[in-house]
Design brief:
heterotrimer, A mainly alpha (133), B mainly alpha (127), C mainly alpha (769), A: 133 residues, mainly alpha, 5 helices, C: 769 residues, two-stranded antiparallel ribbon, 34 helices, elongated, cell membrane (chain C), transport (chain C), ion transport (chain C)
C-alpha cells in the first residue's frame, strides 16, 4: 500500500467520495440513493484514506471515535421519530413542512441517522481489521 | 426468464452450502457470504423480475407508473444486504481471532469446548 | 373442609418450628394436628347419613372449568378417617422414633409426613379431577422425599427415584385419561362424570381413557408389572413405611379404581383386567414374600399382595365384593400399620433387619411383642378379629362372582402366605431364634402406643362390628354400589363354605411356618426367579434408555462441526422433500414469463461460473475473487432489473467486503488444504445438489403463483401524495417501515460494537497444533 500516486490522490478521492455520499444521502428521497448507500460510500472513502495513509490518518480525519458516530446516528434516528410521537401519537410518523415546492421532513433527520450509523459501524469494522497490519 | 433466475440462484445456493460444509473457517465464511447474496436474489425474485424501470415516481406524476419495478422486495433486500454485510464482518472478526489464538483455521482444532469424537470422558476417567 | 385442608397445610409448615422447639416430645405436639382433623371429620361424618354428601366449592381457574371442589361422601370419609387416624399414630410414633436423632432431622421428617397427609386428604376429597391430579402428584413427590429421606444411602436414593419414575409416569397416564374424559364430557367434576357414565361409554375415547386411568392406578398401587417399586420403598424410615404402605398412599390407586368402577363397569374388560392383574400380583407377591428374609421386606411384599386382593375385589362382580373391599381396606390398614410400627421398633432396637438374625426379644420389648401378636392374629384372619370377618367376606364374594375357581384357589394360597407371614413376623423375632439380640434403643410409650391401639382396634371391631358397619362401611358401601344395601356383619356365620376355606388357609399356613426356612432357602437359591419377579425389567429398561441416549449423543454430538452442519442440512432437505412429496401437489412451473433479457442471462452465467470456481480452487484469494464475482454479479442483476438503489448498495458493500476479506487473508495462510475426506466430499456434493434442487423447485413454484401486489400497490399509490417522496424504495425504508429500519440500523451498530470489542483483545496464541 505504499504507492506514491495512490497516497497523493487519496485525499482528493476521499473528499470526492464524501461529497458524493452526502449528495446521495440528500437526494435519496426522490431519486435513487439514501442513507444506507450514502453511509457505505462515505465509509469506503474513509477506507481509501486508511489504506493509502494508514489507519491513524483516517481516524484523525474523522475526529470522532466511530462508536461515537454510531451513537449520534441512533440518536438522530430516534429524534427523527419523536415529533410524530408528540404530534400524531405515533413514533416515527414523519412530519412535513411544505415550503413552496420544497418538502422538508423529519425523514431527512432519520435518514441522516441511518447514514451515520452505517458510516460509523462499517468504519469501525474496517479500522479494526486494518489496525496493526 | 424467471426459471433462469431460479436456476442460477439454485446453483449459487448449492455451491454456497458446499463451501459451508467445509471445515476451513474462511471457506465457511465465503460460503455464508455467497449464500446471503443468493438469498437477496431470492427475495428480489419473489417480487417478480419483469421490468428495468426503477421504482421512482416520475416528475409530474403523483403515483408510481404501472410498468415500474416492485418497490417492496427492493426495500427488504436493501436492508438485508447491510445486515448480511455486518454478519460477514462479525464472522470475519471471529475467524481472525480464532486464527490468532489457535494458529489454525480448521474447525477440528477448535475443541476447547467439545472434545472431538465423543462428548463423554474416556472410560478410564469415569467415576 | 377447605379450611381444614388449609389448616392441615399450614400446620405442616409450622410443624418444622414447633417440633424442633419441643424436641424430643415434638411428635406428641405435632400429632395434635392430625388428631384435630380426625375429630373434625368424624363430626362431619356423623351428619353424613342425613345429607348424603357435603360439597364445598372455590373457583380456581374458571376459564378452564377447574374449581377447587371438595366433596365428602361415605367412601371419602372412610379414607379421610384412615388417613388422619393413622396419621395421628404415625406422627406420635415418628416423634419417638426420631428421639435419638438430630432434632432438625425429626422436624424435617414430621413436616414431610404432615404434608404427605395433607396431599392424601386433598386427593380423596377432591371432586374436580384436575385438582385431584394435582394432589395425586403431590403425594408422588412427597413419597419420593420420604423414601429418599436417608439421602446418604445410595439404596434409598435409587428406591426414591424408582418410585418417582414409576408413579410419576403413571401420573402422566392418569392425566391423559382425565383430559380425555374432560374432552368427551366437557367437565372435570367426578360426580358429574359418574352421573353421565353412559354418555362417556358411548364415546370412542372411553376405552383409551379407561386404559390410561388404569395405568395410573396400577403404578400407584404397585400392581403387576409395576409391583417392584413398593418393596424397594421400605428404604424409607419405618414411620413413613407404615404410612405409605398401610393406610393410604398406595391405596389411592385402589381408591381411584373404586371411584371409576361405577363409571366403567359397562366395559366388560374393566372388571376382567382388574381380576387378572390383581390375582397375578397376589401370586407374585406371595412368592417374593416367601423368598425374602428382611423384616420390612416381608411385610412390604405382603402389602403388594393385599393391594392385589383389593384390585381383584373391585373387578369382581356379584354381591359382597364391595363390602369385602371396604372391610379389607380397614382391616389391612389397621394390622399392616401396626406390624410396620413393630418392625420399625424392633429393627431400631437391635440395629438388624434380617429375620434370621434377630430373636428372643419378647422380654426386652414386651409391649411391641403384644401389639405384633394382636396385629398378626388379624392379619392371619383368625377369629375374633376384623381380619377374620374380612376374609370370610372375601371368600364369599369370590364364590358369588362369575370368575371361577381359579381366583378362589389363588386367594386361598395367598391368604395362607399372609397368615404365615403374620405368624413369622409375630413369633420369630420375639420368641424364637438362637440368638438373643442386644437392645440398643428400648421401647417407649410413643413407640408402642400406635401398634397397641391399632392391634386392639382389630379385635374391638371383630367382636363388635356393628359400630363400624353403621358408621363407616355402610355409607361407603352405598356410595360404591350406588344405592343402599342392608349389611349385617357378624363374627360367626355358621358352618359355611367360607369357614371351610378359612380352615384350609390356617392349615396351609401352619405348614408354611413349619417349613419357612426350607422354603426360603429353596427360593433364595433361585436367583433368576428373584430377578424376573423383581425390578429386573425396570432396571433393564432404564439402563437401555441410558445406553440409547449415550449412543445418540455419541452419534450426534461428536464435536465435529462438519457433522453438525451436514446433519442439519440433510435433515432440512429430508423434511422439505418429504413435505413436498406428501402434500401430493405438483408445483406448477410456468415456462414462459417475464421479459427475456440477454445481459441478465450473461451475468447469471458468470455468477454460476464464479460460484463453481469458488468451490473448486484451493487458493483462498482466488476463492474470494470468485465470491466477489457472484456479489458484483448480483449487483448487476439489480441494476439491470430496475433496482438502482439496491445495486448501488450491493456495489458499495462488495467493495467494503473485499477490503475486510483482504485484511483477513493477509493474516491467514493463503492456500487452503482440503479438510474433507473424499468420502465426505461426495456426501457433501450430494447434499449441496439436493439443496440446489430444493431451492430451484421452491423458486419455480413460487414464481408460478400469482403475485399478491396489495402492499406494493399501496406504496406505489401513496408514496408521493402522503409521504412526499418519489423514490418509493427509500420512502418504504425511512417512512412506512421506519421502525424496522431503526431496528436494522441498531443491528449494524451491535455488529460493529462486537467486532470492535472482539478485535481489541490480542489473544496469546496457544501452541500451534
Amino acid at each position: 500500500m505504499n504507492s506514491l500516486i495512490f497516497a497523493a490522490f487519496s485525499r482528493i478521492l476521499f473528499i470526492l467520495m464524501l461529497a458524493v455520499s452526502l449528495f446521495v444521502l440528500y437526494r435519496g428521497h426522490n431519486e435513487p440513493g439514501g442513507g444506507f448507500v450514502g453511509g457505505l460510500i462515505a465509509a469506503a472513502g474513509f477506507a481509501t484514506l486508511a489504506l493509502a495513509r494508514g489507519v491513524d490518518v483516517a481516524r484523525a480525519t474523522l475526529r470522532f471515535e466511530p462508536m461515537t458516530v454510531i451513537g449520534f446516528g441512533i440518536l438522530a434516528a430516534l429524534l427523527g421519530g419523536l415529533p410524530g410521537l408528540w404530534l400524531d401519537d405515533s413514533f416515527l410518523a414523519h412530519q412535513w413542512a411544505i415550503l413552496g415546492s420544497a418538502h422538508i421532513g423529519t425523514t431527512l433527520l432519520f435518514d441522516i441517522g441511518v447514514y451515520l450509523v452505517v458510516l460509523g459501524g462499517i468504519l469501525s469494522l474496517i479500522l479494526r481489521f486494518y489496525e496493526g497490519l | 426468464m424467471h426459471l433462469l433466475f431460479a436456476f442460477a440462484i439454485a446453483i449459487v445456493a448449492g455451491c454456497s452450502l458446499y463451501l459451508i460444509l467445509s471445515r476451513h473457517i474462511v471457506r465457511i465464511l465465503l460460503g455464508v457470504t455467497m449464500l446471503s447474496a443468493a438469498i437477496n436474489l431470492v427475495i428480489f425474485l419473489s417480487g417478480r423480475i419483469v421490468t428495468n424501470v426503477p421504482a421512482v415516481i416520475r416528475a409530474g406524476e403523483s403515483s408510481l407508473s404501472a410498468d415500474a419495478a416492485n418497490p417492496l422486495p427492493q426495500a427488504l433486500v436493501l436492508t438485508a444486504i447491510v445486515i448480511g454485510f455486518s454478519l460477514t464482518a462479525f464472522f470475519a472478526a471471529l475467524a481472525l481471532q480464532t486464527y490468532r489464538s489457535l494458529g489454525s483455521v480448521d474447525t477440528r482444532h477448535i475443541d476447547a469446548a467439545e472434545r472431538l469424537g465423543s462428548p463423554f470422558p474416556a472410560a478410564k476417567d469415569r467415576p | 373442609m377447605l379450611a381444614a385442608l388449609l389448616v392441615s397445610f399450614l400446620g405442616a409448615i409450622l410443624a418444622r418450628f414447633v417440633v424442633s422447639r419441643t424436641f424430643p416430645h415434638g411428635g406428641w405436639v405435632a400429632a395434635l394436628l392430625p388428631a384435630g382433623l380426625f375429630l373434625f371429620f368424624l363430626a362431619k361424618g356423623a351428619s353424613l347419613p342425613e345429607v348424603g354428601a357435603i360439597t364445598e366449592t372455590l373457583e380456581w381457574v374458571p376459564a378452564l372449568g377447574i374449581s377447587l371442589t371438595l366433596r365428602l361422601d361415605g367412601f371419602a370419609l372412610l379414607f379421610v378417617l384412615l388417613i388422619t387416624g393413622i396419621g395421628t399414630l404415625v406422627t406420635i410414633y415418628a416423634g419417638a422414633y426420631f428421639a435419638h436423632s438430630p432434632k432438625e432431622e425429626a422436624a424435617r421428617f414430621l413436616t414431610l409426613i404432615l404434608l404427605f397427609m395433607t396431599a392424601m386428604l386433598g386427593t380423596v376429597l377432591s371432586d374436580n379431577l384436575i385438582v385431584m391430579f394435582v394432589f395425586w402428584e403431590a403425594t408422588s413427590l412427597l413419597s419420593f422425599m420420604l423414601i429418599g429421606f436417608n439421602s446418604h444411602r445410595a439404596q434409598a436414593r435409587k428406591a426414591a427415584l424408582q418410585s418417582l419414575i414409576v408413579t410419576g409416569g403413571g401420573g402422566l397416564a392418569l392425566f391423559g385419561g382425565i383430559l380425555l374424559i374432560g374432552m368427551t364430557l366437557g367437565t372435570f367434576s367426578l360426580s358429574e362424570v359418574a352421573q353421565r357414565a353412559t354418555e362417556l361409554l358411548a364415546s370412542p375415547l372411553a376405552v383409551p381413557a379407561m386404559i390410561l386411568i388404569m395405568l395410573g392406578a396400577f403404578t400407584k398401587s404397585a400392581q403387576l408389572p409395576f409391583h417392584f417399586w413398593l418393596p424397594q420403598a421400605m428404604e424409607a424410615p419405618a414411620p413413613a413405611s407404615a404410612f405409605l404402605h398401610s393406610a393410604t398412599m398406595v391405596k389411592l390407586g385402589v381408591y381411584l379404581l373404586a371411584r371409576f368402577d361405577l363409571i366403567f363397569e359397562g366395559i366388560p374388560a374393566f372388571g376382567a383386567t382388574l381380576v387378572i392383574v390383581g390375582s397375578l400380583t397376589m401370586l407374585v407377591a406371595a412368592v417374593r414374600a416367601l423368598s425374602t428374609d428382611g423384616f420390612k421386606e416381608v411385610l412390604a411384599h405382603s402389602t403388594v399382595g393385599s393391594l392385589g386382593v383389593l384390585v381383584m375385589l373391585i373387578g369382581l362382580d356379584g354381591d359382597y365384593s364391595v363390602t369385602a373391599l371396604i372391610a379389607f381396606i380397614i382391616a389391612h390398614a389397621l394390622y399392616k400399620a401396626a406390624l410396620f410400627f413393630c418392625a420399625g421398633t424392633t429393627i431400631h432396637a437391635v440395629g438388624e433387619g434380617r429375620l434370621s438374625k434377630i430373636g428372643g426379644l419378647a422380654r426386652r420389648l414386651p409391649m411391641t411383642t403384644l401389639a405384633a401378636g394382636m396385629a398378626a392374629i388379624s392379619m392371619a384372619g383368625l377369629p375374633p378379629t376384623l381380619g377374620f370377618i374380612t376374609k370370610e367376606y372375601l371368600f364369599e364374594s369370590q364364590l358369588n362372582a362369575s370368575s371361577g375357581w381359579v381366583v378362589v384357589a389363588v386367594a386361598v394360597l395367598v391368604n395362607a402366605v399372609f397368615a404365615a407371614i403374620a405368624g413369622v413376623a409375630a413369633i420369630r423375632p420375639y420368641y424364637l431364634g438362637k440368638t438373643r439380640s442386644e437392645v440398643k434403643h428400648p421401647e417407649t410409650l410413643g413407640l408402642y402406643l400406635g401398634p397397641l391401639v391399632l392391634g386392639g382396634l382389630g379385635f374391638l371391631f371383630g367382636l363388635a362390628p356393628d359400630f363400624l358397619v353403621r358408621g363407616l362401611i355402610q355409607p361407603a358401601n352405598d356410595v360404591l354400589v350406588g344405592h343402599t344395601v342392608d349389611l349385617s356383619f357378624s363374627l360367626w356365620h355358621g358352618f359355611t363354605p367360607m369357614l371351610a376355606l378359612s380352615a384350609t388357609v390356617v392349615a396351609f399356613a401352619g405348614g408354611l411356618i413349619a417349613y419357612w426356612h426350607r422354603i426360603h432357602y429353596a427360593l433364595s437359591l433361585n436367583k433368576g426367579l428373584a430377578r424376573v419377579l423383581g425390578d429386573f425389567g425396570f432396571n433393564a429398561a432404564f439402563a437401555g434408555l441410558l445406553r440409547l441416549a449415550e449412543r445418540c449423543t455419541r452419534l450426534l454430538q461428536n464435536g465435529d462441526q462438519h457433522r453438525y452442519t451436514s446433519t442439519v442440512a440433510a435433515a432440512v432437505l429430508l423434511i422439505i422433500g418429504y413435505g413436498v412429496l406428501a402434500s401430493g401437489t405438483r408445483p406448477v412451473i410456468a415456462l414462459t414469463d417475464g421479459r427475456f433479457d440477454m445481459p441478465s442471462v450473461i451475468v447469471l452465467l458468470l455468477m454460476c461460473l464464479g460460484a463453481f470456481a469458488a468451490t473448486r480452487t484451493p487458493s483462498l484469494l482466488r476463492a474470494m475473487i470468485a465470491v466477489g464475482v457472484v456479489g458484483f454479479g448480483s449487483a448487476l442483476i439489480f441494476l439491470l432489473n430496475g433496482a438502482p438503489d439496491v445495486a448501488l448498495t450491493q456495489f458499495s458493500v462488495e467493495v467494503l467486503l473485499v477490503l475486510i476479506l483482504v485484511a483477513l487473508l493477509l493474516r491467514v495462510p493463503e492456500r487452503a488444504a482440503s479438510t474433507r475426506e473424499p468420502r465426505e466430499k461426495r456426501l457433501d456434493i450430494l447434499i449441496s445438489a439436493g439443496f440446489a434442487l430444493v431451492v430451484f423447485v421452491a423458486l419455480a413454484a413460487t414464481v408460478a403463483l400469482p403475485l399478491d401486489g396489495r402492499i406494493s400497490d399501496f406504496y406505489a399509490a401513496t408514496s408521493y401524495l402522503e409521504a412526499h417522496g418519489r423514490n418509493v424504495v427509500n420512502v418504504v425504508l425511512v417512512d412506512y417501515r421506519a421502525i424496522d429500519t431503526l431496528g436494522e440500523v441498531i443491528v449494524v451498530a451491535f455488529a460493529a460494537m462486537s467486532v470492535w470489542g472482539l478485535l481489541r483483545i490480542m489473544p496469546r496464541r496457544r501452541a500451534a497444533p
